[in-house]
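Entry for the shared binder. Reason: the reviewer on the internal report wants the predicted structure included alongside the sequence.
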Amino acid sequence: MKKLSLVLIVLFLFSAVFTLGAFQEKKEVKKSFVSIDGMSCGVCRAKVEKSLRNASGVTKAEVSLEKKMAYIEFDEAKTSVTDIEKVITGLGYKANDKEAIKAEKTDKVEKK
């Protein structure tokens, strides 16, 4: 009887956890392009990309040395384009999302 009660309690707890997960608000992913001035080599590109990927709230980051641009997907509840630009400027490069929007019309940046 004790084992049956324990099994029922465990099943109840698992079902409660999964039910709560189903009602959680889905994250809205925002996509943005940011132009980057000052990158001159593949090491620069890799450094910027790694820093962006490790930034809080960033779910995806791709940096193109050829286009001098980054494509970023992020959770707007955790970070902003301004915060992302600060990551880039903190590495010693100039960042501007407005210039990137003018220059880039595609949905993806090719890595070069």
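Summary line for the report: The longest strand covers residues 29-37.
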